[in-house]
Design brief:
Blueprint: H1 4-9, H2 32-45, E1 52-58, E2 60-61, E3 73-74, H3 80-99, E4 104-112, H4 120-132, E5 135-146, H5 153-161, E6 164-172, H6 176-181, H7 188-201, E7 205-212, H8 219-231, E8 236-241, H9 263-279, E9 283-286, E10 289-291, H10 296-302, E11 307-309, E12 312-314, E13 321-324, E14 329-331, E15 335-339, H11 343-351, E16 357-362, H12 365-380, E17 382-384, H13 390-406, E18 410-412, E19 416-419, H14 427-432, H15 436-439, H16 445-448
The structure holds S-adenosylmethionine and iron/sulfur cluster (SF4).
Iron/sulfur cluster binds next to loops.
Length: 453
Amino acid sequence: MITLELLKRYNVPVPRYTSYPTVPSWKEKISVASWEKIFKEQFEIENNNKGISLYIHLPFCESLCTYCGCNKKITTNHNVEEEYLQCILKEWNLYLQLIETKPVIKELHLGGGTPTFFSPANLQALLSGIFEDATIHPQHDFSFEGHPNNTTVDHLSTLYNNGFRRVSFGVQDNNAAVQKIINRIQPFENVQRATDNARKLGYVSVNFDLIYGLPLQTLKSIEETILQTISLQPDRVAFYSYAHVPWTSKGKRLFDENDLPAADLKMQLYQKGKQLFTDHGYSDIGMDHFALPNDDLYAAWKQGLLHRNFMGYTTQNTNMLIGLGVSAISDAGIAYAQNHKTLHNYYQSIYNNELPVVKGYFLNDEDVAFKKYILDISCKGKTNFKSQHLDLLMQYSFPELINLEKDGLVKWNLKELTVTETGRNFIRNICKAFDLHMLRNETKAEQLFSKAI
Ligand SMILES: C[S@@+](CC[C@H](N)C(=O)[O-])C[C@H]1O[C@@H](n2cnc3c(N)ncnc32)[C@H](O)[C@@H]1O
Ligand code: SF4
């Protein structure tokens, strides 16, 4: 049973653990040569036939949603498309030269920004260029983020013809007053139309992103948004906690802290949403995600086959992720690298024929071991402890587990840990018990992460 008291107690700043160590622990500057070396070595070890994941960041948006915490560039000038896509293909070629073999692409995600800012013809040119020197895995999983206001049938069919079967629509909130104050006017008909069009074309999984904790949201308004959402039966829903990012786009914002739901109301908004989803056949598969039983993420969760990377939860077990584009992150299993966050610096590296990586982290043995504990907990809800880590576990993790167990979130002994049904709502807090960087105060959570709820 999740009580308001429990929600309050665990509503502390915690990472979403799409990586471990988390980004604030990374080095501000890594050398390109060292990243190339480690990436190449890992690529050979991981046996490329298994397939890699590819993430392409497409940063442009036509207008600014003032709550947005993503890396984006606002412009109505569509002439920017071609130069950007040419640079993505150059970056891809730099990776191809490095690995000296044809990669097998198993997972591909176009994220943003707004991928559907780009014309269908330009997206086709991008994908043709990417696929030219790659093999597509027979069990591939290709997805993209679409803005309901500008995802056309042409976008959907172009991507479908390139193997895309999953789409994620940014819905956020359907209430007119909320939409106005966050500067995202998006009539529900647009969401409905985009969803219908995707289904008619044969997309098998439609995801909606919703946010709770936005300015002016009330229990009534969120109920209406969620019931409308459920009427369209998205296969998955990401129900995100609004992360207030006061340092971005402040000048253009129509709201301030006073318009945000107070902490208690925010928790009630979450509880209301969770209740409505579960009452209507959705399962909470952990860390903000709900899915219908027909969804493959749900099936993977049930079978203990979920995985997690920078794109969030996935059914694909690839150990190498190449992130292309401004701010994109790559993961070589034992090392992470993030690209330049400004277009200017990104373009400069590409025109210098250099991989645009700047920030990153190379894991030591201890990081690798604790990364596995965190992944096990977030994907399977259980983990087994290795005897060689007992000293570290006793010093850092077990004292945390004692409290988590008292609150009914985990069951554990010296050999293993299992997350309870209630604990599923607090996965981020449970993972934190294995985050040695945070427990040693090497990462300053308050300044860098949003609260759990
Ligand atoms: C990278 S955005 C891309 C989606 C697409 N651009 C759109 O808006 O339709 C992915 C998702 O992040 C979520 N998001 C963005 N800013 C957020 C914030 N400050 N707090 C919580 N979630 C946020 C939104 O739900 C959004 O759909
Ligand atoms: S929420 Fe999506 S469309 Fe809005 S500014 Fe952010 S990335 Fe762009």
